[in-house]
Fold Tyrosinase.
Amino acid sequence: MTVSRRGIILGSVAGAAGTAAAVLAVGRAGATAPAPAAAGPAVAAPAVAGGGGKGDAQRHTFDYRGHRVEVTDPAGTTGMAMAMVGDRMVHVEKMGPRSFHTHLLPFTAYEDTPTLIRDVIDAARQQLFVL
């Protein structure tokens, strides 16, 4: 039996595909279907899930450099804040009582979401990313 490079490559690809299929099958065995989302925009929700506390979410609405911004902060100490910049959604992670972070500006923590969103809009104007 002769071993060729083509045989090794095909065997490696088949092994990787089989491993990936097995991992997916095991991972999905205990998973459940997600609950359907409520109708309406995300900023209209009465509270943000995962807030780590009780009460309604705080909402901020302001205009900045020609963009209408609507921010919904979770009521608790942690969770996901949502910001609508025009028709674009920006996810903001609330890391603590006064610590916010976004993947668009990964190396900076902010004390409030309006300041964070202003910096996101400024970075988009500098063409660091598309908002």
